Amino acid sequence: MKPRTFSRHIRESFKSLARNGWMTFASVSAVTVTLLLVGVFFVIMMNLNNVATTIEEDVEIRVHVDVAANEQDREALGEQITQLAGVKTVQFSPKDKELDNLIESLGTEGEAFKLFEQDNPLNDVFVIKTTEPTDTMEVAEEIEAFNYVATVKYGQGKIEQLFKIINVSRNVGLALIVGLLFTAMFLISNTIKITIVARRREIEIMRLVGATNSFIRWPFFLEGLWLGILGSLVPIAAVSSAYYYAYGIIEPKLKDHFIQLIEFDPFVYQLSAILIIMGAAIGIWGSLMSVRKFLKV
Hints:
Blueprint: H1 3-19, H2 21-57, E1 61-65, H3 71-82, E2 87-93, H4 95-106, E3 125-130, H5 136-144, E4 149-153, H6 158-197, H7 200-208, H8 213-253, H9 264-292
């Protein structure tokens, strides 16, 4: 396509938006309302997913070494664990450190445990993280069969339920987002279709004077693009402002917790790009699907 022809299509698309003011307003409003819902829901689901990921990454296996094991036995056990498939990291925590951690975690109540510093009854511990959190149970079962393993702890029973809840919540969230997107495409394309149906005479006249299908499509293609982009501006501004305000209030309260919100920057900019792309894509799709029926021979 020649640059002159393309610039003509751009001018015509803007003129058409201005000529059909109310229909343009209706289409942009449909895009705005739908993308606003998508944006809000997307922010909620991404933060819930971030919390779920943080919880998963916090899952670890604690292998208590038998008190009868000597240094050589501990090293051999550590080597066995490291070579297991699915093991990401292995850290050795001697019993002296375990006692210090216990005293520190109990605060003032832990002072009484300092009496055990001379005769420490705790076990040496291997702290293990798996490559995939869902591999925790399988890796723990394999380690239990090794020599010089006293106990293996990973929150058995609770971890399985936690993973099930996280998996279900992610699947439900994904299904809701997909459903909302399809609803958005249906509503927006129908609104744009009304706009194009109202201009069917324009399309018929263009066909009568010999305009090609491609020549007719381009202005509508560009109109859909502008409608989608215009409709995404308000949701971007609203969601970004709301998240900035919410982040400023909630984040300081979660400072000492393992649960954290996704940082404002660059999350909001990524979300803005997604909303613009979604708006443009839905606008283009709606325009092309609507004008297609009038271009059939």
